[in-house]
Write a structure and sequence with these properties.
Hypothetical Protein Tm841, Chain: A,domain 3; 289 residues; 24% strand; 13 strands; Rossmann fold; four-stranded parallel sheet; globular
Length: 289
Amino acid sequence: MKDFVITADSNSDLLEDYIKEKNIGIIPHYYDLEGITYGDEINLTPKEFYDKMREGHMPTTMASNPEVIRETFQNYLNQGLDILHISFSSALSGGCNNVMAGARELCEENPGAKIIVIDTLNASMGEGMFVMMAVQMKEEGKTIDEIASWLEEHKQEICVRFTVDDLNHLQRGGRISKTTAFIGTMMGIKPILRIDEDGHLVPLNNARGRKKSLSIICNDMIESMGKFKDDHDIVCIAHGDAPEDADYLANMVKEALPHKKILINYVSPSIGSHSGPGAIGLCFRGEKR
């Protein structure tokens, strides 16, 4: 039986140490800021990126590069490895379709090769949680086909709730109208959103004030967990350079669910370009998205 590698994209918001330890192959998504394209050799730290946004610089984003996908995958195939790629939602980016197209072409060009692409219909550490589950199953001895089958069957169990600090970034991305952004900002309204069953970003609730919005997403998580509430698994918190708010939310989670492990990381720039500084996301396993 051939060995295989697990790959993902930079929107999975996995911790760098974890990526290195588990040898996860990462396909970059790109963003342009002040005329410079970042994502490959050139990168800003999350702090640098969000500080530039606070200064008024507005980034634009691009999906994964087909040539980089081909080069990355071909390198693994040349090593005799099959590939299990876990992708950012196809409903939010063209990156998943780029990977699927590249995989088809490479399998035609390399007889006997196997590349399986999983569309998580998810984002940020919601995608990252899927990667961590796949890695754990691989370490337990599961085959690439067994893991892929499990991921497809259970993808709706990975839930994401998040709130933003500045409505104008959602307005720029076409998620809300200018009028809604203006009125909401004036009234201190913080929208709460989720990733739905089809991988789209949709409204869930509203809150007046930052701490109230964090309390609502924590309570909604507890309600949505259902049978998974007592499991000793992980809860992930992703933030747009808002470490104090991330810690505040983590403490609420710890108080309600002391048996859960909590992972905290930055929202990657290609997602943060749309959610902005101060965004906070909560990712968990639940019965309903």
